[in-house]
Amino acid sequence: MKAFIFTGQGSQFVGMGKDLHDTSDQAQEFFERANDVLGYDIMDLMFNGDPNELRQTRHAQPAIFLHSMVIAKTNRDFKPDMVAGHSLGEITALVAIRALSFGDGLRLVQKRGEAMQLACEATPSTMAAVLGLEDEIVIEVCSQIDEIVVPANFNTPGQLVISGTLAGVEEASAKLVEAGARRCIKLNVAGGYHSPVMEAAVEPFRKALEIASFKDPMVPIYQNVDALPTEDTEVIKEKLLKQLTSPVKWQDIILNMVEDGARSFVEVGPKPVLSGMVRRITGREMTTAM
User: Fold this and answer.
1) Considering 87, 163, 246, 275, which one is annotated as catalytic?
2) What does 141-162 look like in DSSP terms, one character per residue?
3) How far from chain centre, in Å, is Cα 79?
4) DSSP secondary-structure letter at 248?
5) Which of 21, 59, 86, 194 is catalytic?
6) Could you tell me the pTM of the whole model?
7) d(CA 165, CA 195)
8) Does residue 194 carry a catalytic annotation?
9) How confident is the model at residue 188 (pLDDT cuts 50, 70, 90)?
């Protein structure tokens, strides 16, 4: 069985998607439709834009979604038995397996990115990767900090990302090094995703989910909040909303996919990010890039 996995925010770069646009009429149609849906020239931003502007959450999320979705939709080898997406990638995966139309998926991503950026601007926040420490110790240390800081991405054994206010992440990072972490590396992100900092983004995104039209997916999707597969559209929507303020259980997703029969993984995104995670989780080289 083959699992397709979709990358999330952080995989953007200037020039992304230009090769697809220049070599595929079908890809060009998707890019032009994206401009119409978003109301601005996403192509120019992706192909020629300022890296700092592209990094902004409200731009990075539509750009990554568009790039990944075009890869999946224009490739004859996209024949999944199951799918998953890391954070933002969950929406891309849903469009790829026909649970959402391209337009509805892109509008959801646009609203999600805008709402998350506003939440970040209201509460300055960040994330940090914690290396070489057991998850339970990270959870315990974070729980002792008065400022907002929580485990946000359970990525691989010995690599967990924390998220919260600037002060919370700084204090937790210092205490985690004292507790034995090899390193705590502040990430180059615009805010504290998958934490209570994102609470302000929940209601705007809820309204966007209510408008979007969902259909039964062609294959199961393993969702971030509990790492379990589902094909129930109401469950999918509920978990998409909860994902904003909940941790990404990526390690459990990969292990559950393997247990359910996945023998190979195909990563879909602007640049490989998840393949190394799959290798560290499974101990095997199982991933190729589309």
Assistant:
1) 87
2) HHHT-SSSEEEEEEEETTEEEE
3) 21
4) B
5) 194
6) 0.95
7) 9
8) yes
9) confident
